[in-house]
Specification:
about 675 residues, alpha/beta, seven-stranded mixed sheet, 33 helices, 14 strands, about 15% strand, disordered C terminus
């Protein structure tokens, strides 16, 4: 009664209505009613058991229960920001099962069944005949059962039991996954053996977990000793063994088809990033598993690519090379467009090599996009250079098939496809800056008129009527000379030529050796293109420079509908993307065709001699080698002739125009002479 009196005195008017509101308000201020505080409380509970919990019990099931039981309800939310490998592992598995039906999936150590929910974003669950979530922890299985019931999954079965003993009733599984569970299974040999025994011949095993490398391991797994010691010690506190033994044993049982090594943040723990891996294997085939080689960009190269497109006109190449299905072609990568063009034109195999891993990553992304996407998405990515869903497409469809190097490069640069791919990289930034300067000089409308001129005659009128072009061509020579020198100093100095245009000092020296100044060389290049090649209909190189995109009827062949379809039908599978030095790749096999581009311009005569000798040894008799040079008569041409090649200069820019790119002074073709009788006999004996 006294309590009621106190409550009544607190109410306005004594009817108790405000008292109830006050009581409700007081109750609503509890932690459980404030989502943010509830979330923090749950996270701290999980952290408490992660960092300070001591698993106890007479057997493994009891130890799991003592560890996970108190945190089971908060498990999913916390792990979403900790177990970074789950989603990409499932995406990589799903990408390899695309289009298949009646699948059987066994998720070993599946815990709360969250993986099933994640997988539904990549594959409709109706495609699975049965899904088995197997776990030894009772509390996690209870959460999983509740999830299955609430989601209405009729084909998902929760199995509370030992993964070492489980076998699906169907006898075989199309997909088996270990998601941060293999490191928590002490008899890992037994569970891997058991799982491998019921993996179907066309199935996959996907694993993601924390790890440390061995003392001597594959290059992209390797860690320094202090990281190995620190992380293994930390996880050992919770009876989690993240040593290299489990992955090593997996690779004795299955053939690795995909791997990624990375690291992810830990909630509420600044600076530290826990190492994790993704691994997918299948039954052994006649081949052998490959691994990525750790590559680094050469000194003085920017941290990204120099070229977003290939800056050599493929049309003259096709006229002199006689590309056919028996060809094995070696080419430099650059933007990768011309490597793909070789395949469109019927080359049997194309090896595309670049010492800059960023250029290889660009071509690899193009190759995987052709294999995995439709033409509309490929066009948005590489035709328009922009795609609003680039991040989603990358993670779900492209990343599962990229090398670790390419994934690492692109995962940090997906914003390229928001700002415009063709404004990125060295030459992309140069084009962007030049566009701004042109507009500042009042040339914006001239650019638009040039790129929309329907004929070459109309384009010439636009070009020649421009006040700046008219001044450079017909103005007082002393003033024109001063103006050109100022522009060259500001926009085409040595730093800009290298980082923006990819022109090294040795190549610049070849230009100057022909008694041609840099400003004259650039003026010849641009004027020759404007006077002789229609940008709108036939010159996608400069159209892209001025507009930052291609057009469907004015683009590299791999972006055309017919070119794309021929590549997707299987031709693109014959592309080998290599990050290596050109000479090393040349020595690795025999070629029928070699495209040097302007590579030899970059070399001193000693290296050029070494290259010429390698060409003699690695190019089949009758094989063709082509190159372009910034020099009208490059000094190394005689070295290639002496090495056993017939050489001819196909074209030059002496008249002001050579091809649609028009950036070089000469174009050469060399053909390997047939072996003489003695040499042929030696070759057969070898």
């Amino acid at each position: 009664k006294s309590c009621n009196n106190i409550i009544c005195k607190m109410g306005a008017g004594g009817d108790g209505s405000v008292t109830r509101k006050a009581a409700d308000k007081k109750k609503s201020l509890s932690i459980e009613k404030v989502p943010v505080l509830t979330s923090v409380k749950d996270d701290l509970t999980v952290l408490r058991y992660m960092w300070f919990g001591k698993p106890s019990g007479s057997d493994h099931a009891a130890r799991l229960e003592s560890f996970y039981g108190p945190q089971a309800k908060a498990y999913d939310k916390f792990r979403a920001n900790f177990l970074w490998g789950r989603k990409p592992m499932l995406a990589a598995c799903a990408a390899r099962l695309k289009g298949r039906k009646n699948l059987v999936w066994v998720d070993l150590g599946g815990g709360t069944g969250e993986n099933v929910d994640m997988m539904s974003k990549f594959i409709p669950l109706e495609n699975f005949k049965a899904v088995y979530v197997v776990d030894l922890c009772h509390s996690l299985c209870e959460v999983s059962r509740q999830k299955v019931k609430s989601k209405g999954w009729k084909n998902v079965h929760v199995v509370e039991g030992d993964a070492c003993a489980f076998r699906p009733p169907e006898g075989q599984a199309t997909l088996i996954t270990f998601s941060y569970s293999l490191t928590m299974i002490p008899p890992f040999h037994q569970v891997v053996d058991q799982a491998e025994s019921y993996l179907s011949g066309d199935g996959y095993m996907g694993v993601t977990d924390f790890f440390v490398s061995g003392r001597f391991d594959l290059p992209l797994r390797q860690m320094p000793w202090h990281r190995r010691f620190f992380w293994r010690s930390i996880f050992d506190i919770d009876n989690i063994d993240i040593g290299p033994e489990r992955r090593a044993y997996l690779e004795t049982k299955l053939e690795r088809v995909y791997e990624r090594n990375s690291e992810g943040s830990i909630p509420y723990v600044p600076y530290l990033r826990a190492p994790y891996y993704i691994w997918i294997g299948q039954k052994h085939t006649d081949g052998h598993a490959t691994h990525d080689v750790k590559v680094e960009r050469p000194p003085l190269f920017p941290p990204t690519f120099l070229y977003t497109q290939s800056w050599e006109d493929p049309e003259p190449d096709m006229k002199v090379m006689d590309i056919n299905p028996s060809d094995t072609v070696l080419t430099l990568t650059s933007g990768g467009c011309n490597a793909l063009n070789l395949l469109v034109n019927g080359a049997g195999k194309v090896v595309s090599v670049d010492c800059n891993p960023a250029q290889s990553s660009l071509l690899e992304l193009k190759k995987v996009a052709i294999q995995q996407l439709d033409h509309a998405d490929v066009w948005k990515l590489f035709g328009e250079g922009r795609h609003p869903q680039a991040a989603e497409i990358f993670e779900d469809k492209l990343a599962p098939f990229l090398s670790e190097t390419a994934y690492s490069f692109w995962s940090k640069r997906l914003w390229y496809f928001q700002q415009g791919l063709y404004y990125q990289g060295g030459m992309g930034k140069l084009c962007w800056v030049l566009q701004i300067i042109f507009r500042m000089l009042g040339l914006g409308k001239t650019m638009e008129r040039l790129t929309s001129a329907p004929t070459i005659e109309e384009q010439r009128k636009v070009w020649d009527s421009n006040h700046l072009v008219h001044f450079i061509k017909h103005g007082p020579k002393p003033l024109v000379h001063i103006f050109r020198k100022i522009v060259t100093f500001a926009l085409f100095n040595r730093a800009v030529l290298w980082f923006g245009g990819g022109v090294p000092m040795k190549q610049l020296a070849l230009i100057l050796a022909d008694n041609i100044s840099v400003d004259t060389y650039i003026a010849r290049t641009l004027d020759g293109v404007a006077e002789n090649s229609c940008l709108r209909h036939h010159n996608y190189f400069y159209y892209n420079c001025l507009m930052g995109k291609f057009l469907p009827d004015n683009c590299p062949t791999y972006l055309t509908a017919t070119g794309f379809q021929s590549l997707k039908a299987g031709k693109v599978d014959s592309l080998v993307v290599s990050t290596n030095f050109f000479l090393d790749e040349l020595r690795s096999r025999i070629y029928t065709k070699v495209i040097l581009m302007d590579h030899v311009d970059w070399l001193d005569l000693g290296k050029a001699q070494e290259l010429a000798t390698a060409l003699r040894e690695q190019v089949a008799p009758g094989g063709i080698v082509i190159w372009r040079s910034a020099s009208l008569n490059p000094p190394y041409a005689s070295l290639i002739r002496t090495a056993g090649f017939e050489i001819r200069r196909v074209s030059s820019a002496e008249a002001g125009y050579m091809d649609r790119v028009n950036m070089y002074s000469s174009f050469f073709v060399a053909q390997r002479k047939p072996l003489n009788g003695a040499a042929a006999a030696v070759g057969k004996k070898q």
